[in-house]
Design a protein that fits this description.
Elements lengths: L2 H8 L1 H8 L3 H22 L5 H16 L4 H9 L9 H5 L1 H8 L4 H24 L6 H26 L1 H4 L2 H22 L1 H6 L7 H6 L13 H28 L5 H21 L14 H14 L3 H11 L8
Length: 327
């Protein structure tokens, strides 16, 4: 299986966006994303106890840095059952992914290596800490490690390949982190039930206490009113981050349109996911997803309007409208 097939297997959404990038930038981000999927597998798999996850995350960091052999990591991964986990295949292909990384220009390889190692280190810290998310600052710290750093990484890759992006680098970096926080906040909303079933609740205790419930009571129908108040808080947070993410799109030069377009799609998908989640108790019982027909419509419409900052802003506001089916 080649890199692009691996990417498509692990994430159709990011495959769509990254595949649309200019070839050099696309190849670099494809490899960077797959490296992070290895980290995600080691963090999230239910096949390993926490202490072993931390050990393997630290080993993966050392492998990336060239300070350890990949053979030990490969053996540990092969000893864990796949259990249908999408990231398992990426983890099992870690040697192949690193081989591709080493073919990139040295400066670009160093950038990707630095960010992936830092993100992996943050994941190990959170696995050691456990699901102890007390405040919004705790939630943001976790999201920064798993997603905020990706905003910086992506921007550096774009700037490496595009002088037009490089000229706006300073302004883009002021909101790059927010793109990651926006997408991760939406992931947390979508995955509330799934994360709960594997023992993690990323919703801060402070959000729940203000609503008069505990985090565990989020999923108890007897406390649905309080849970909906917490959902309102999460949705408002997601919308704040998404506003900054839209500003990131608007800062991307129209002359680098394929980069702009690739960033536009996941952010607009997230805007629409929040619209489906707003006031929707279904987030506590299952995964909320935007229908595929709407995804196709967003791709088509944003491709047509993406040249205009005014139209992008208008379209993002349009997607914020709550769909009839959730009312």
């Amino acid at each position: 299986m080649n890199y692009w097939e691996l990417l498509q297997h692990t994430s159709r959404t990011f495959y769509l966006s990254i595949r649309n990038l200019p070839a050099e930038a696309g190849n670099a981000l494809c490899l960077a994303y797959l490296m992070l999927r290895v980290s995600d597998y080691l963090e999230d798999t239910q096949s390993l106890p926490p202490q072993e996850k931390v050990r393997l995350l630290n080993l993966w960091q050392a492998v990336i840095a060239g300070d350890a052999s990949i053979a030990e990591l490969e053996q540990a991964i092969s000893d864990t059952p796949a259990n249908g986990e999408a990231d398992y295949r990426a983890a099992a292909s870690a040697r192949q992914i690193l081989h591709g990384l080493h073919k990139l220009p040295p400066e670009l390889e160093d950038q990707i290596t630095r960010h992936v190692r830092n993100s992996t280190d943050g994941m190990a810290r959170w696995v050691s800490r456990g699901p102890d998310v007390r405040t919004e600052a705790d939630m943001d710290d976790y999201m920064h490690e798993v997603a905020g750093r990706v905003g910086y990484l992506s921007t550096e890759v774009f700037a490496f390949h595009s002088p037009l992006v490089r000229a706006r680098m300073e302004r883009l970096m002021t909101v790059a982190r927010e793109t990651g926080l926006a997408l991760q906040t939406v992931n947390i909303i979508r995955g509330l039930r799934k994360d709960y079933e594997r023992g993690w609740i990323y919703v801060p205790e402070s959000f729940c206490s203000r609503a008069g419930i505990t985090r565990e009571q989020l999923f108890d129908p007897a406390h649905r009113d309080g849970a909906m108040q917490v959902l309102d808080t999460l949705v408002a947070k997601a919308e704040r981050h998404l506003q900054a993410a839209v500003r990131y799109i608007l800062l991307l030069p129209r002359g680098a349109y394929r980069i702009r377009q690739a960033c536009m799609w996941p952010i607009l998908f997230a805007v629409r996911t929040v619209a489906f989640s707003r006031g929707n108790p279904g987030v506590f019982t299952g995964d909320v997803k935007v229908p595929r027909k709407e995804i196709k419509r967003i791709v088509r419409n944003s491709t047509l309007c993406g040249w205009s900052n005014t139209l992008v802003k208008c379209y993002a506001r349009h997607l914020q409208r709550r769909p009839r089916s959730t009312r």
